[in-house]
Structures are given as structure tokens and as C-alpha cells.
Amino acid sequence: MKRFYVALAVTVVAAVVGLASPAYANQDNPKAASSAANLSGLHDFDFFVGEWHAHHRKLKERLAGSHDWVEFDGNLSMRKLMGGWANEDESIFNVPGGVYRGVTLRAYDGVTGQWAIWWLDSRMPFAPLDPPVKGHFVNGVGVFYSDDTLGGKPVKVRFTWSNISPTTAHWEQAFSGDDGKTWETNWTTDFTRAP
Which single residue of 1, 82, 118, 133 could bond 146 by disulfide (Cβ 3.0 to 4.6 Å)? Predict the structure, then answer.
């Protein structure tokens, strides 16, 4: 099963980078990346390569005024793809009542200097991928945004990476139902590098 997710991750990232980047005309006529490519953020996720333990806190309901959190642990394994222009990680979530997996796909755009991030969930592996969050790091903090829907209503999504060190990292997800005026954090994860 893991090979399926890795193969799918590589296929999706390769297709997205090939289609989304002006550096490549099409699959029949690939062009080498320009020497003038914006490489300023190409190594932003290098800190995350390897094996990690994760402690998750997740709101039971999103944008519903909930203050009930569920906490659980997990593991994550991350590796670079395509010479560092993409990467993927596989997470194992030990949620109350069971276990599931997910794959994060990331690809770097050398024109905009931004990363795009997609999520693939083992509970619905054939569902269309959500719109990617896009963004970059500034002074050690990475912020990424997208527009999505929740319960049929438009929402803005924000990922934030912070508190990064050789052995720790913090990630959180927040939603806004009012076009970014206010944000509700609905998931946080503290990572500790596995020995």
C-alpha cells in the first residue's frame, strides 16, 4: 500500500509541476529550467527530511464555535523528490478508534518562488485533491493560503510552519469563513525528530 501512495505522490507532483510551471512547455517538449529561476525558497523544507514523531490537536468541529479538541499521536516520514524541486511525506495518524494515513505533496515553482502543497487522505484516496495551499517562508515562518469550501460554503485555508529547529517543528491549520477577517485554528501538530 505504501508503494501505491509513493507512486501516486510522484505521479501527481510530476504532473502538477509539469503543467503549472512555465519552465516546461508540455510532456512532449520539456524545456530545462531557466538559469534565472527563483531558487530563494527551494530548500525551505529541507529541515523536514527524515523521520518524525507527531503530537496532534484537532478541533472536533470546524467553524462551528467548538472548543472541544481531540489529541492523538502519530509518525511521519519525509523525503525529497525530483532533485529537491518537490517532496512528499507520509503520515500515520493514531486517532481514537483507529489508524489512517495521509500523504502530503509539495512542489516548488521557480518562477514565483512559492511552494504548492496538496493532501491525499487514505480514507478517500480517489477523491479529487483539494486546491493546493501556496506560499513561502519569511524569517523562518512559512505561511500558505488557499480558497476551499466547507459544508458547501467558501472558506480560506491557512497553513503555518514555525518553531523550526533541527529536532522540532510546529504546524497549524486555520480556516476563515469571513474572507480572512478572522481565523480559527482547527489543527496543530508539534513534531519531534525521531532518534
Answer: 133
Specify the amino acid at residue 104.
Answer: T
Residue whose entry in the numeric block shows the C-alpha cell 467548538? 66
Q: Which residues contact 154 (CB under 8 A, 6 or more apart)?
A: 147, 148, 177
- Compute CA distances 187 → 36, 124, 160, whole Å: 38, 19, 11
- For residue 75, give the 3-state DSSP assignment: strand
Rounded distance, CA 22 to CA 5, Å?
27
Domain 2-30+41-193, CATH number (from 2.40.128.20, 1.10.260.40, 3.40.50.12280, 2.60.120.560): 2.40.128.20
Q: How far apart are CA 21 and CA 113, in angstroms?
A: 11
Q: Per residue in 111-138, pLDDT tens?
A: 999 999 999 999 988 888 889 999 999 9
Give how far Cα 5 sits from Cα of 99, 102, 120, 126, Å. 16, 9, 9, 11
15 pLDDT above the threshold of 70: no
Task: List the domain boundaries for the chain.
Answer: 2-30+41-193
